[in-house]
Amino acid sequence: METAMAFEIDALPDQEGRVALITGSNTGLGFHNAHDLAAKGAKVVMACRSEERARGAMERIGAEVPNADLEFLAADLSSLEAVRSAVAEFRANHDSLDLLINNAGIGIAPYAKTADGFERQMAANYWGHFLLTMSLIDVMPDSAHSRVVAVSSLAHKQGAKEIRFDDIHWEQKYSSVGAYRQSKLACLMFTLELDHRLRAAGKSILSVGSHPGVSETELGRSLPKVVKLLTRYVVGPLISHDPDKASLPTLLAAIGPDVEGGDYYGPQNKGETRGDPGEAGIHQCAQDEEAATRLWELSVELAGADLPF
Ligand SMILES: NC(=O)c1ccc[n+]([C@@H]2O[C@H](COP(=O)([O-])OP(=O)(O)OC[C@H]3O[C@@H](n4cnc5c(N)ncnc54)[C@H](OP(=O)(O)O)[C@@H]3O)[C@@H](O)[C@H]2O)c1
Fold first, then answer.
1. Eight-class DSSP state of 156
2. How far apart are CA 300 and CA 95, in angstroms?
3. What is the pLDDT of residues 138-190, one digit of tens each?
4. How far is CA 20 from CA 58, 143, 148, 170, 199, in A?
5. What tens digit of pLDDT does each residue of 192-233 get?
6. Which of 29, 36, 98, 178 is deepest in the core (most CB within 10 A)?
7. DSSP letters of 180-208?
8. Do 87 and 81 contact (CB within 8 A), yes or no?
9. Which of 21, 29, 53, 152 gets mutated to test ligand 1 (max ligand atoms within 8 A of its CB)?
10. pTM higher than 0.85 for the full model?
């Protein structure tokens, strides 16, 4: 895989006739992925938890991309039951899926337990996407143009750099930052483990990871106001880039022509916080195969689903 120099969306292939499902596409980075894929001609299924917010986003995209083919799918990733309903609805309306972009996420949120008994950041960012992927992968054509993209983060290599298997639901000592970091590490471990399993099964579908660097979106909505202001006016201008740019590593992972399974894309400045998209660094903590296998087995148990092949 070569590092993209002057990145051009126009140089990426058209997506006419293809179906992309993007979770959390009503705002932030997922919104820009939905916009760009719709502009490329894909039918974009916007899998969101708020129909009102999704429909607002669809209107905004439609205003800029007149022929945008957009569809709303109710999907709350923090609930296994809601993910099962979303899968049933998708399958009732579609025979196949070309791109599954696991983007939805919450960041640094206060502790909350979901109906499934999961810590909510892990629930929305990881467990729900695990179930979604296991439940839809059999309708993805067996081709390298079929991609599962998981959105990770620089946060995967910060802090503990491990999965807390002994307190997976953060019931003992909660850290909002720690749980977020863990969820993003889980997303990247999942990308690599899914890639191994797809290859072992002789499948051509690609499992690819991405991270946006740093971008001011609604992700920090739970943060104290002073932290938000500091981020916006002091730290942000030094290290961040706009969401339309920060969404490009995911777009490249989804439709880039030279992408291979297990690739990981992010911005290209020194700290990978901003810049054109290209190959990104995977910390060794995400390449711990024993931990990845253990996480996979636990995910199968908790989500109640596995690869169908
Ligand atoms: N922004 C950054 O600097 C940054 C850095 C590293 C990684 N990321 C990752 O990038 C991805 C997108 O984040 P963003 O920055 O675009 O944040 P954002 O602006 O807050 O957008 C997050 C999206 O996820 C949706 N979402 C949250 N919980 C959900 C749930 N339970 N079910 C369904 N959808 C849910 C949100 O829907 P609602 O509007 O309904 O809440 C929203 O559409 C996340 O995975 C995040 O971890 C972002």
1. G
2. 25
3. 999 999 999 999 999 999 999 999 999 999 999 999 999 999 999 999 999 99
4. 14, 15, 10, 33, 22
5. 999 999 999 999 999 999 999 999 999 988 888 888 888 888
6. 29
7. HHHHHHHHHHHHHHHHHHHHHTT---EEE
8. no
9. 29
10. yes
Helix (H) or strand (E) holding 304: none
DSSP state of 66: T
Place of tokens 């760009």: 36
Residue ranges of domains in the chain, CATH in brackets: 14-303 (3.40.50.720)
User: Which residues form the pocket of ligand 1, taking CB atoms under 6 Å from any ligand atom?
Assistant: 23-24, 26-30, 48-50, 53, 75-78, 103-107, 124-125, 151, 153, 211-212, 214-215, 217-219
Distance 281 CA to ligand 1 centre (A): 22
Sign (positive or negative) of CA dihedral 103, 281, 267, 99: negative
Q: For 19, how many CA atoms within 13 A lie in the half-sphere containing its CB? A: 17
| Radius of gyration in angstroms for the set of CA atoms belonging to the chain, rounded to a whole number | 18
Q: Ligand 1 center to residue 30 CA distance, Å? A: 7
Helices 128-136/80-93 angle, 10° precision? 30
Question: What tokens does 268 get?
Answer: 């290209």
Beta-bridge partner residues of 207: 148
Per the document, the length of the chain is 309
